[in-house]
Amino acid sequence: MNLGVRESVALARASLLLLRGKKIAPQMIICPSTIALSEVRKVVARSGCGLGAQNVSQEEQGAFTGETSARMLSEVGATHVIIGHSERRKLFGEIDELVNLKMQKVLEHNLNPILCIGETQTEREEGNAKKIVTHQLVTALKNVRPKFSETLCVAYEPVWAIGTGLTPTTQEIVEMHAHIKMVLGELFPTAPESAFAVLYGGSVNGENAYGFLREKEIEGLLVGGASLKIHQFKEIVDAACQVLSAQN
Question: Which long-range contacts (CB under 8 A, 24 or more apart) does 39-47 make?
């Protein structure tokens, strides 16, 4: 809840310009506040850039004042939806079972979920990080039947690293991403290799983005505060382009 509609449109335009002239560029998904979705859609139309919402209701329709349904998001042109962000869990009490209902509803309306999971500082210090992440994954994906025509994104965002400037070591992130991939493989044993992308989110900035992205287990980034500052975001996009160029 940082930018108004005009600011969101300006930032979306500036973000798309970062990809201009790039022979190899990363997939970009812009997730403005709900009120700016319609206007930002006009900016990203025909660009190949995805348009994501930051939240969605688990309900189809009805007397749920202030909520936004998956159908509504689809109508305004959203292609993706962030589900279970750590701020939603922490500040608004979203539990894993609610995240699961939202996952089902989003897929029902052919939107692509970006499922956020991650442990708190206490849970990590107690040695329960993988246990917590596994439970979040298993619960969120219960009775979920992805079509796998699109890649399902899972964003690992350790709660203690959100907006704090603190980040796990690259090795810790790589280990967790490998664990997440293993759990996904067990949940969906027939899914193709391209079915999932595991992203990292948590104090991502222009200085650490390249170090993260060069690890094959880290398949993308969920960028928070740094995406609001176009110069910082440019460094992150440039890092992604460098990694992609090196891989080709």
Answer: 39/5, 39/8, 39/9, 40/8, 40/9, 40/12, 41/76, 41/77, 41/78, 42/9, 43/9, 43/12, 43/13, 43/16, 44/12, 44/16, 45/77, 47/16
The string of pLDDT tens digits covering residues 205-219 is: 999 999 999 999 999
Which tokens hold the place of 52? 């994501």
CATH architecture of 5-19+26-58+65-160+168-247: Alpha-Beta Barrel (3.20)
* Residues 6-42 pLDDT 10s: 999 999 999 999 999 998 999 999 999 999 999 999 9
Domain ranges across the chain: 5-19+26-58+65-160+168-247
Q: Catalytic: which of 157, 177, 179, 235?
A: 157
| Cβ pair 115, 83 in contact under 8 A | yes
3-state helix, strand, coil in the chain (%, to 5): 50, 10, 40
0.85 exceeded by the pTM? Answer: yes
Q: How far apart are CA 208 and CA 203, in angstroms?
A: 9
Indicate if 85 belongs to the active site. yes
Contact 82, 55 (CB under 8 A): yes
Q: How confident is the model at residue 165 (pLDDT cuts 50, 70, 90)?
A: confident
Rounded CA-CA distance 210/239 in Å is: 5
Catalytic residue chosen out of the listed positions 85, 119, 123, 235: 85
Residue 177 bears catalytic tag: no
